[in-house]
Design brief:
By secondary structure, the chain is an all-alpha fold. About 80% of the residues lie in helices and about 0% in strands. The protein has 16 helices and no strands. It has helices at about 1-10, 10-20, 30-45, 50-55, 60-70, 75-85, 90-100, 105-115, 125-135, 140-155, 155-170, 175-185, 190-205, 210-220, 225-240, 245-259. The longest helix is centred in the N-terminal third of the chain and has 18 residues, at about 30-45. The protein is elongated.
Length: about 260
Amino acid sequence: HLVWELTESSAKSFLLMAVEDYALDESDADQRLRLDQIVDGVIKEKQREPLRELANDSELLRKEVALVKENGAAVGLILRLAEMLEQPERVAFLETGSMFHPNDYWLHLERATAYLEQPVPEIDLAADAYLAVLAINPDSAVVWCNRGCLLNKNENPSQAIYCFRRAISLNPEVRHAHANLAGLLHGQGDLEAALEAALVAVEIDPNDPLAHLHLGRILNAQEDSEGAIEHVRRASELCKEHPLIEQAMQELGQTQDSN
């Protein structure tokens, strides 16, 4: 009935009231996804032309954004308007949208992406946005992995390790979690656990250069020069230019010279 009524009405006010009346628990990501699909469907069918006009008219877009900032709007509309904005307006608009929908999984996820797309990526804010996502749905392995990657970049290895292990516990085959975990454990000197993680990473994705890189460096640390050369070379084949791969090649050269 709701879908029919929304389809029959193009009024934004009706759309907002109908969404609120639907009264879904915003903390349930699956329910939010279904609701967003309904809203997106209505927006696509009934507001396609107005949104297209906004995309081509900066003044109209500015007015619509100001209206939404003041009164709020459905999540689907906020996300679509955000796509039309350039940085830093885009991230500021998503921050405002998150204030109207503090428990919306998708807004916080998009906000994290927007922070990382800034001319100078705001890693701390993106990591906090991922934390907000996880407060809504703590069972998202990909988000745990993404937060771990950011914490790793910010040189916070203990929390990054926790995030990668949490991601793996939720989904043992989540991409990049094992490889990143291997690199961190190697850095902490836990070669046995690092080797185990690196082997799993290569098994999950034989074409992941990061997995081969970490496995090669770990094998080199264990004085398995033949295995180390094999995997570092494979990493180099998969990714021609990467500072860590170049560093690993230098390490192998130094090891061979010392032998």
